């Protein structure tokens, strides 16, 4: 649940309990849980409206929307960095890297038979990951479309863990292969390692050994010393 909607549920439940006490009533734990679930249903409905209005990540939101209540109320599983890449299609995939200018083509570097490497290709059809996929299929089933995978993740802790295991094993290998391509001098179009803007600003303003500081135009003078 988005944090702001979760906060609204807690605030409304707190107010409801306060109103009950002001009327001389002490709601039982079962009544409190019933009211919490009612408020949570309203929050899920608001969240579903947000997903429907979203202009980005439609593939992901479309997969989660049908099982949103189960996804929000599940008592198992946390997403990892690599699992999020697979669910969002934003990560170490040729199509995504080419779209943002960090790969020359969208082709799959692993099976060499696909000219468009996507999260769905990695998850369901790339022959390079047949071994990892067989373990996943034994738990999730043969339908590896994103809506089905998300539904199985929401309903089963075993399926959730199987998806995370697949993502960690496969994406870590794709990342390692990408780093190797970056290091090759014969691949000038592959993205180079970048220093983030905030980190670059931080290093630019670090004091040098003589007390001066680097600037965009050179080196600024260090602090003046007082005369004796």
Name the structural class.
mainly alpha
* Computed CA radius of gyration, to the nearest angstrom: 25 Å
> How many angstroms separate the termini?
64 Å
Helix content: 55-70%
Q: What characteristic shape results from the CA principal axes?
A: elongated
| Helix and strand pattern | HHHHHHHHHHHEE
Reported for the largest beta sheet, the result is: 2 strands, antiparallel
The fraction of residues assigned to DSSP E strands is: under 5%
Question: Helical region count?
Answer: 11
Total DSSP E strands: 2
Q: How many domain modules? A: 3
**Unreliable stretches, pLDDT < 50, 5 or more residues?**
190-196, 214-225
Mean pLDDT: 85
* Widest sheet: strand ordering: 1-2
Polypeptide structure, described:
The protein has 228 residues and is mainly α. The chain folds into three domains: 1-53; 76-190, no CATH class; 195-221, no CATH class. It has eleven helices and two strands. The chain has helices at 3-22, 29-53, 58-64, 68-73, 81-88, 94-99, 119-124, 130-140, 146-155, 157-183, 197-204; strands at residues 213-215, 218-220. A two-stranded antiparallel sheet has the order 1-2. The longest helix has 27 residues, at 157-183. The protein is elongated, with a radius of gyration of 25 Å. Residues 196-228 are annotated as: Disordered. This is Reverse transcriptase.
Sequence-ordered SSE layout with sheet pairings:
Elements: H1 3-22, H2 29-53, H3 58-64, H4 68-73, H5 81-88, H6 94-99, H7 119-124, H8 130-140, H9 146-155, H10 157-183, H11 197-204, E1 213-215, E2 218-220
Antiparallel strand pairs: 1-2
Helix pairs in contact: 1-2, 3-9, 5-10, 8-10, 9-10
Biased composition (Basic residues): 196-206
Organism: Loxostege sticticalis (Beet webworm moth)
Protein name: Reverse transcriptase
